[in-house]
């Protein structure tokens, strides 16, 4: 048997990073139903007037007012292979840190303050979880891999400028609970319904074909089990639509609820920063907190 070359030996000795993680990035989040039950059992804290954002909503960070001009924003980040930050179901070693920041108290945009009639703008295309699943099964082509890297390494920089717009009423980002899960958080926080337009949703290249072939994430099924009873899907949607709508996004885009008269400014901020696929995907409506996709 001929000796292995150095390149071949390296490929044999070094496994794929994704093969060492049972769940990558937002795909390893604790299921939303389990997380909700855990938070319900936590000891209630007394009200603090300077605590602007606490655990009562599903916001991504706590916000504490220091004075009339400054509030501190704090969150914890635990990095997994593939990298992201959130609650973690993991058997692998992890690395964590605290990420603090400063914000003007009047520019804090929560996920619980959307208004009826607001339009919903999504900043990034969807489908990272499907591409990650394809990568792990070695069925992702170079174009798909490049698209996945491009979107997951693109920082949501427009958030700061968006927070300064009076017409922007609420913001969140679409991550591990999928588009439906984080949209439902907006609905529950505001006590409103949401209507999403499936035909308007932006997808990463190749995602729909991969999903229709059965390349999906386990997290999408867990997400649906957690909140599917609060979602109504049109019968006209493709068979794989549910899995895509619940697909966990690592480094997903911002989801912005804004007044209709502010939507041009919101889109202009996204587009000027290179978020060319940012678009209107739905609107907030009066009604019970649920999501309709048509």
From TrEMBL:
The keyword Cell wall biogenesis/degradation does not apply. GO terms for biological process: selenocysteine biosynthetic process. InterPro entries: PurM-like_C_dom, PurM-like_C_sf, PurM-like_N_sf, SPS/SelD. Its EC number is 2.7.9.3. It comes from the Bacteria. Coiled coil: none annotated. It holds the Pfam family AIRS_C. It is an enzyme of class 2 (transferase). Residues 115-287 form the PurM-like C-terminal domain. SUPFAM superfamilies: PurM C-terminal domain-like (SSF56042), PurM N-terminal domain-like (SSF55326). GO terms for molecular function: ATP binding; selenide, water dikinase activity. This is Selenide, water dikinase. It comes from Paraburkholderia saeva. The lineage of its organism: Bacteria, Pseudomonadati, Pseudomonadota, Betaproteobacteria, Burkholderiales. The gene is selD_2.
């Amino acid at each position: 048997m001929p000796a292995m070359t150095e390149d071949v030996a390296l490929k044999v000795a070094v496994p794929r990073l994704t093969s060492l993680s049972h769940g990558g990035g937002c795909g390893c989040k604790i299921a939303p139903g389990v997380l909700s039950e855990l938070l319900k059992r936590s000891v209630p804290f007394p009200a603090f007037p300077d605590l602007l954002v606490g655990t009562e909503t599903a916001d991504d960070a706590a916000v504490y007012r220091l004075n009339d001009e400054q509030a501190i924003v704090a969150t914890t980040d635990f990095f997994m292979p593939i990298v992201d930050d959130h609650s973690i179901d993991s058997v692998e070693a992890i690395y964590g840190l605290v990420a603090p920041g400063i914000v003007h108290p009047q520019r804090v945009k929560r996920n619980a303050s959307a208004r009826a009639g607001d339009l919903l703008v999504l900043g990034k295309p969807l489908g990272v979880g499907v591409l990650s699943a394809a990568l792990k099964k070695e069925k992702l082509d170079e174009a798909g891999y490049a698209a996945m890297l491009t979107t997951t390494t693109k920082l949501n920089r427009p958030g700061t400028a968006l927070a300064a717009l009076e017409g922007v009423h609420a913001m969140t980002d679409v991550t591990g609970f999928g588009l439906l899960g984080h949209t439902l958080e907006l609905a529950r926080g505001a006590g409103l319904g949401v209507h999403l337009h499936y035909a308007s949703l932006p997808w990463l290249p190749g995602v729909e074909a991969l999903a229709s072939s059965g390349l999906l994430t386990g997290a999408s099924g867990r997400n649906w089990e957690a909140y599917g009873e609060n979602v109504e899907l049109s019968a006209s949607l493709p068979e794989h639509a549910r899995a895509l709508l619940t697909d966990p996004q690592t480094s997903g885009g911002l989801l912005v609820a804004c007044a209709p008269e502010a939507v041009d400014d919101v889109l202009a901020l996204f587009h000027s920063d290179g978020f060319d696929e940012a678009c209107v995907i739905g609107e907030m409506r009066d009604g019970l907190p649920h999501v309709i996709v048509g």
